[in-house]
Model the fold of this input.
Amino acid sequence: MANFAKASVPQFAVEVYQNVHLPEGGREVNAVVTVTAAGGAGEPLPQPSRSPGSVALSGRSPDAAVVIMVDCSGSMDYPPAKMRSAREATAAAIDALREGVAFAVVAGTHQAREVYPGGGRLATADAVTRGQAKEALRKLSPGGGTAIGTWLRLADRLLASSDASIRHGILLTDGRNEHEEADALRASLDVCAGRFTCDARGVGTDYEVKEVMRIASALLGTAEIVADPAGLATDFTHMMETVMGKEVGDVCLRLWTPLGAEVLFVKQCAPTVEDLTGQRQEAGPRAGDYPTGSWGDESRDYHVCIRVPSAAVGREMLAARVSLVLPAPDGSPAHVLAQGLVRAVWTDDVVASTSINPQVAHYTGQAELAQAIQQGLDLRKAGDIDGATAKLGRAVQLASRSGHEATAKLLAKVVDVVDAANGTVRLKANVSKEAEMTLETRSTKTVRVKK
Done:
């Protein structure tokens, strides 16, 4: 029987926004599911221990475990301020650790090396271990290549040694993953997915944006560019404070659908666009779990699309039952945190069946905005001026319509906006690498619909 420790969790609530009406024979049901967690308000829940005993140095059983992976490849020496800033940022993150949290620091090159505490262990944060860890950081120096998959695998092994409910990584890189095949990184992400979450940061402007975003997406974390190394300490502190605010991990969005219905996709649409469809894990007859990672006091939106059997006017059915669950690794029933229903009603009222729910329309546009930006930048890099202009013009139009001011400002650094409402733009002749990379990195960030 699994060992259990009590953990206080947020109180979850689920709200479903949709147009329930379909025309006769209609089959596609769309809904936006808003999940809200009010931190610390819920009843304590049993959390299964993940190992018979943590190897944290103090012997305590912390509720969170964090591994910081620092790029120490040769390129971190150009300029030298980059490595110095990385050391300072890691020290700042260590200072932000709560008492009792398990942690470790890993140096990443073409291989992964434990910096602190070593021996395959995690340290437990207190005044002594924080000081020791920051002293160990002084020895970090640049040299070697970049093989990010090995960093993630070592972080996974370290985090697996803890029975913490929140397991998280912070990864910093400044260059391309040149010393392992793309398949190797993909395999590492497949192994680590669902085992821990990870925030990924690119420092400078010489790394590959898509690699950093791929890591964050696969491991349900955030991706960001820190073009100026001087900004790393502030960013690392904020990341660690966010992790320390998490109260429960491994929460899943569970969709049950009736016989004949099919889940077409499940996408997080706020605060960022993330397609979770391919991460489904079967959870019993006609039910599947989609990972959402760790939660604190926060709210997120998900777009679900269900194909149902066609029906005649006047029929009504439950298209899906959406639940927030805490799965039990030992096979016992999952704990249901909150639940909502997605419905379908067939009607011959044309107005009712053709109206689009405002939340669904808004996030459909936000997903198109992210795609238009990414396609436009790819076409620009490929030298397709007409194609890039069309895509980025569409992005400007969508940003204007949705009130996404932050993205509109980033787009204005890449294109000259002639008419935002109609998406008329001209590509700028000279665009800084930082502006282009920042736009790509932040393309998936969304603004929430006013409800």
In short: The first strand starts at residue 4 and ends at 7. Residues 1-7, 46-61 have pLDDT under 50 and may be disordered.
